[in-house]
Amino acid sequence: MPTLPNPFDRVRRLREADASRAHDPGAGRVPPGQVLTDKFPVLTYGSTPRVSRTDWRLQVWGRVAEPREWGWDAFVALPNRTQVCDIHCVTRWSKLDTEWTGIPFTEVMRQIQPLPGADHVMIHCHGGYTTNMALAELLDDDVMFAHTYEGKPLAPEHGGPMRLLVPKLYLWKSAKWVSGLEFIDANRPGFWERYGYHMHGDPWSEERFS
């Protein structure tokens, strides 16, 4: 079995990166410390999960009135939307005008009843990855479960068959290979947050590290 990289090494390298590198202002669309790219870099801790649509599930549990589960066909039958947005990675690249199609988070929430005090969600993914999100931010109009990128099914290395997309935060919050939503009543750190990443992750405030 290959040895996985030490997460602390990645955090150390990012902390030491030159945040003063020049960047294209992109008409005010590029946050501080970011550089534009036309590519879509692949950054993954560990191996890339290969999840078929037949096996894919989205489960909901925790502080909810009733747990839920969707298979692929039932989930993608929910109302879909296509949007164009900019994305920003904590490793200092930004990509403008990316096109995504998927199910808005608000459509999923129509079928979920959080219990009082459930103000955060832990996003769970195939491969064991997790990240924490405030429920209020997940309810923004641009948050979706994306299955299509630039008109094509989302590739496994970019989180296919289904990933979360939260454009206003650094891309580690847009969890790849999403499989579950755990509603919680306290803001707990996810995978990278436990290794020093910021609990929120706003690119415009450069919330890279805690």
Please describe the topology of this protein.
Layout: H1 7-16, E1 35-36, E2 57-62, E3 68-71, H2 72-76, E4 81-88, E5 93-104, H3 105-109, E6 120-125, E7 130-134, H4 135-138, E8 144-149, E9 152-153, E10 163-165, E11 178-184, H5 191-194
Parallel strand pairs: 1-5, 2-11
Antiparallel strand pairs: 2-3, 4-5, 5-8, 6-7, 6-11, 8-9, 8-10
Task: Give a verbal description of the structure.
The structure is a single chain. With 210 residues, the protein is an alpha+beta fold. It has one domain: Sulfite Oxidase, Chain A, domain 2 (Alpha-Beta Complex), CATH 3.90.420. The chain is 13% helix and 29% strand. The strands form 2 sheets. Strands 1, 4, 5, 8, 9 and 10 form a 6-stranded mixed sheet that branches. A 5-stranded mixed sheet has the order 3-2-11-6-7. It is globular. The relative contact order is 0.20. The model has no long low-confidence stretch (mean pLDDT 93).
> Class in CATH?
Alpha Beta
The SSE string, one letter per element, is HEEEHEEHEEHEEEEH
Q: What number of structural domains do the residues give?
A: 1
Helix content: 10-25%
Main beta-sheet strand count, sense and barrel state: 6 strands, mixed
Distance between the termini: 32 Å
The number of distinct helices, counting runs of at least 4 residues, comes to 5
Count of β-strands: 11
CATH architecture designation: Alpha-Beta Complex
Label the overall shape: globular
Provide the CATH superfamily: Oxidoreductase, molybdopterin-binding domain
Unreliable residue runs? none
Beta-strand residue percentage? 25-35%
The helix-and-strand class reads alpha+beta
Average predicted confidence as pLDDT: 93
Rg estimate, integer Å: 17 Å
CATH topology: Sulfite Oxidase, Chain A, domain 2
